[in-house]
Amino acid sequence: MRTLMAAGLGLAVALGNAGAAAAQKQPTIGVFTKNFTNPAYENFRIGADKIAKAANARVIHYVPKKPDDVDEQTAEVEQALKDRPDIILFTPVHDKAMIEPVKKLNDANIPIVLFTNPLPGRFVTYIGSDDVELGYKEAVYLFKHLGGKGSIVVIEGVPAAPTNRDRLRGYQKAFAEFPGIKVLASGVGNYQQPVAREVMAKMLKEHGQIDAALVANDGMALGVLEALKDANRTTVVMSINGILDAVKQVEIGGILATVDFNTFKMACLATQAALRHLKGETVPDKIILPTEIIDKTNYKAWLVPVAERPCPSWEEVVR
């Protein structure tokens, strides 16, 4: 789905010394996110809109109606080639299938800021997190909580997503360090709450004792909690993202902890990077946000609704 959102009003008008008014084009930023169902991408859109509005830029959002759909995102790239935004913020729904569509944007000389998922191509910068470290720290925190022993299940994200593959690599690293952890089952939840609920429901029927669920994102963790409630079962749940609903579950003990994958901050920085590039200012090749565990000791900082949070300044993060 393509939604046009004006994040500023009208055209900026610059008056020349001769008294002639020259209209200066308002910068337009195309923002590609993967779906409307994952709160992480809603948070990204909020952050992009916030920075764009402050800069009197406008935003065109390109979002597939069907979550993570390659054909829809490919069609949206074609639309962007017609719309000709000044710069694009982009995350691929599939890191291989989207290589050629992105090449078309490169060939059209539309600059791109890439975020959350690495991809071959030519980009102004890449903004994201170290997903191997996210997965590793998530697993280690959970395994230490279990005392290094226990039978667990794993709920994976979208197989085609580099974030998922890297988080699983982090899990594997942690498994090697904790031989007392046994994986009863692993299922694909596609980073979607309803899918994860179904996957977990099946695992609960197949296994009478599950000590913990290691979950690759918060949306799926919420689905896991629904399945546990339906089955009148309990287990320890750990996940990644730091979305508001998951942090509320950390507060009440439904989720042990979550690891901050802060797409709101990524959006703030990606949009600032885009505007800096358009003004000819320097931007580093890569910006990686630090990994932080959100648990009972610090969760209150994440209880502020995303729309009410201030964006970090460029200087706070990029030094």
Terminal Cα separation, in Å? 37 Å
Unreliable residue stretches? 1-23
Strand percentage lies at: 15-25%
- Strand pairing plus helix content: what structural class? alpha/beta
Helices, by number, come to 10
Whole-number mean pLDDT: 92
Using the CA coordinates, give the radius of gyration: 21 Å
Note the main sheet. 7 strands, mixed
**What is the general shape?**
globular
The overall strand count is 15
Cross-sheet strand order for the largest sheet: 1-5-4-6-7-8-14
Helix-strand topology string: EEEEHEHEHEEHEHEHEHEHEHEEH
The helix fraction, in percent, is: 25-40%
Textual characterization of the structure:
The structure is a single chain. This protein has 319 residues and is of the alpha/beta class. The protein contains 10 helices and 15 strands. The chain has helices spanning 39-54, 70-83, 99-107, 131-145, 162-177, 193-206, 218-230, 244-252, 263-278, 314-317, and strands at residues 2-5, 12-15, 21-24, 28-32, 58-62, 87-90, 112-115, 125-129, 150-156, 181-188, 212-215, 236-241, 257-260, 286-289, 293-294. The strands form 3 sheets. A 7-stranded mixed sheet has the order 1-5-4-6-7-8-14, with helices on both faces. α1 (39-54) runs parallel beside α9, α2 (70-83) packs parallel to α3 and α6 packs across α7 (218-230). The relative contact order is 0.14.
